[in-house]
User: Which sequence fits this backbone?
């Protein structure tokens, strides 16, 4: 399963090689013009049969993680985050550290001694233990600048559920791989597996300037927070905003912090979904941004939409998604590519 | 051939929180089967493996060894839309629970993850405190009907924390508190197969230590030992905490000294460690040691007690960390201590050179 391979691969922002290698292998027989540009984006062309708009489809290869920043004399490692991490999830986690993916743990002081101080420990005060007993032995095991990632085992649960690391955005990468393996399509597809999204949408900007598309779709694994409020009064009808839900189909962004989806493009996607009986939902929360935030401003502007697989617990060790949502997302995008026309990309 | 690492791995990967020690009792009994002569239990479920003296002349005296086999954990408090809300079972730390993988022990064992809110949806005030236990949610990924079929209120939840090897020397995992010391007792019993001893050894895996030293009290009341040695873990130094009272990893077991400890036992343990050149450390504990030793000292009609501790980092987390050699040293120290016990060791209360009855004569 391509998602399993991609989820397990380690590719923290700025060091996406391992992911790029898997994707390249997966798509090579289905595309032409494979290129890796100066920042590390992997782009490719799937030539269409007709004369429709040039469609860029982007998914980012990088995941959030950590970088080793120093050593204590005890051999414990200091570290920083790469991309957005809530420091509150870190105590007591297991990691894979450095180029050799060494087992490591994030230390946490014993409750007996520390519970009187409930303040949140920032990352700068946390330490990774890889079993080094001195600074020099630690230096021999991992160098400053090497990355670390969550130690998570991919899991299939029940009939439909997948659990694993980095579904943001290996779910998007897997969707794009499936699209490229399918077809033929009438439109030209400019596939962009981007880098460094998590630290500022960096790769997407470069890829869009190089590819110069007429329209773009960004594929993400996005924040589903369809959980009950544990402190809610059972009789209280007010529910926490889930942003989007598992099992309700791919999530279409209306607006996020980085862009507003052009109304005609959103309507096109909704009409396509309705015509093909593909379930979908609209995202109801405003948090976060995507590669779309840079793509829509490239050149003289590119109409851009975002199609996401809802995932719980992104930016944490193990996210959860529903395979049916993933599959519906692939079908929706395929249907949209089949119906794509020049009118859709014209602003109203 | 006794493999300490594999034995420890089996112990810590068993799931048995305080009050629900059935699974770990089976594992310990199986491990001690070939090392002791018989088994008994107290009525709370503490397991007592009895290894009879090999060369007693007359009725042998009793030494109790106590290491607790329960662990901290979680319990299902409620199920809402298939998501699980939780209680703590003893001193598990709510501050580290978010994002932890867990196992829900219902009709089947279900892998779950403790829910997190992605940074994109967090408000600044959310980031300022760790969630309370009541705020946490366990997600198994299964549909609500499945969860309701397989899980009930009261079911137990434990960290999904296989034992991990760090750099070949150290190991990390859950329940080293106190199964590392259960392993030390196993190591001791192994050593004793090769040694003569004139005391009966009552190796006890106590229950419900984490809930209030409960099994230590009932087991000691049951056994009525002449002396006892408790084993528990203690704090190794680590960043971000006060390390004034910490003991180093890979420097051997820590022999405690203080009001909870009979000084004669402390002296004898120190003498044994020095004589057999076993690396060791000492720890001054003014009053309550916070271990089974505290309960045993005043159990039955009073029992002279000592405490040996194994230093670990990250106590009460799923990544407790120690050096296997400290377990091995603890086992060896105990075995040599037991082997050198004379039949009349500690035949008085051990406080004065004069006998205890002198005081009565003087009064009259």
Assistant:
């Amino acid at each position: 399963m391509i998602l399993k391979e991609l989820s397990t691969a380690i590719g923290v922002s700025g060091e996406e090689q391992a992911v790029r290698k898997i994707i390249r292998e997966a798509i090579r027989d289905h595309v032409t013009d494979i290129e890796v540009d100066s920042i590390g984006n992997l782009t490719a062309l799937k030539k269409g049969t007709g004369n429709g708009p040039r469609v860029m489809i982007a998914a980012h290869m990088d995941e959030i993680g950590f970088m080793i920043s120093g050593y204590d004399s005890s051999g414990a490692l200091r570290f920083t985050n790469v991309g957005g991490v809530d420091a509150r999830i870190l105590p007591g986690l297991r990691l894979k550290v450095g180029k050799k993916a060494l087992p490591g743990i994030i230390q946490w002081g014993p409750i007996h001694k520390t519970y009187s101080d409930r303040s949140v420990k920032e990352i700068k005060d946390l330490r990774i233990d890889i079993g080094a007993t001195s600074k020099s032995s630690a230096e021999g095991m991992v160098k400053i600048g090497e990355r670390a990632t969550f130690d998570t085992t991919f899991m299939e649960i029940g009939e439909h559920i997948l659990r694993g690391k980095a579904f943001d955005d290996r779910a998007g990468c897997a969707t794009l791989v499936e699209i490229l393996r399918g077809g033929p399509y009438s439109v030209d597809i400019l596939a962009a597996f981007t880098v460094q999204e998590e630290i500022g949408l960096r790769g997407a900007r470069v890829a869009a300037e190089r590819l110069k598309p007429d329209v773009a779709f960004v594929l993400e694994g996005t924040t589903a927070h369809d959980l009950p409020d544990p402190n809610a009064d059972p009789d209280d009808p007010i529910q926490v905003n889930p942003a989007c839900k598992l099992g309700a189909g791919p999530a279409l962004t209306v607006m996020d912090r980085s862009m507003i989806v052009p109304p005609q493009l959103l309507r096109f996607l909704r009409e396509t979904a309705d015509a093909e009986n593909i379930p979908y939902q609209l995202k109801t929360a405003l948090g976060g941004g995507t590669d779309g935030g840079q793509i829509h401003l490239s050149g003289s502007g590119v109409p851009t939409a975002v199609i996401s697989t809802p995932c719980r617990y992104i930016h944490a060790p193990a996210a959860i998604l529903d395979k049916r949502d993933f599959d519906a997302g692939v079908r929706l995008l395929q249907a949209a590519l089949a119906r794509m026309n020049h009118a859709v990309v014209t602003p109203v | 051939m006794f493999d300490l690492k594999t034995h420890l791995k089996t112990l810590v990967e068993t799931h048995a929180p305080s009050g629900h020690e059935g699974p770990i009792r089976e594992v310990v009994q199986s491990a001690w089967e070939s090392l002791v002569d018989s088994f008994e239990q107290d009525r709370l479920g503490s397991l007592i493996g009895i290894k009879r003296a090999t060369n007693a002349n007359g009725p042998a005296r009793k030494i109790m060894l106590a290491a607790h086999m329960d662990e901290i954990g979680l319990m299902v408090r409620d199920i809402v839309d298939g998501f699980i809300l939780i209680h703590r079972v003893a001193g598990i730390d709510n501050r580290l629970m978010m994002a932890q993988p867990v196992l829900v022990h219902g009709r089947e064992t279900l892998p779950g993850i403790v829910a997190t809110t992605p940074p994109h949806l967090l408000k600044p005030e959310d980031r300022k405190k760790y969630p309370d236990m009541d705020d946490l949610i366990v997600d198994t990924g299964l549909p609500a009907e499945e969860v309701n079929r397989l899980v009930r209120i009261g079911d137990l939840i434990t960290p999904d924390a296989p034992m991990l090897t760090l750099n070949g020397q150290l190991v990390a995992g859950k329940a080293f508190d106190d199964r590392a010391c259960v392993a030390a007792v196993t190591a001791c019993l192994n050593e004793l197969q090769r040694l003569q001893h004139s005391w009966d050894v009552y190796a006890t895996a106590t229950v419900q230590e984490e809930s209030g030293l409960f099994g230590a009290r009932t087991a000691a009341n049951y056994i009525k030992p002449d002396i006892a040695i408790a084993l528990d873990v203690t704090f190794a130094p680590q960043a971000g905490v006060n390390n004034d009272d910490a003991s180093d990893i890979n420097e051997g077991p820590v022999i405690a000294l203080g009001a909870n400890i009979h000084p004669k036992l402390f002296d004898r343990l120190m003498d044994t460690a020095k004589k057999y050149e076993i690396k060791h450390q000492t720890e001054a504990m003014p009053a309550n040691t916070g271990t089974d030793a505290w309960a045993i000292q005043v159990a039955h009609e009073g029992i002279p007690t000592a405490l040996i501790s194994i230093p670990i980092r990250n106590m009460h987390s799923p990544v407790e960390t120690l050096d296997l050699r400290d377990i091995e040293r603890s086992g060896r120290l105990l075995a040599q201590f037991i082997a050198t016990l004379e039949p009349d060791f500690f035949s008085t209360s051990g406080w004065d050179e004069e006998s205890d009855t002198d005081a009565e004569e003087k009064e009259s």
Residues 176-192 of chain B form the longest helix (17 residues). The CA atoms of residues 272 and 337 of chain B lie 6 Å apart. The longest strand of chain B covers residues 227-235. DSSP finds nine helices and 17 strands in chain B.
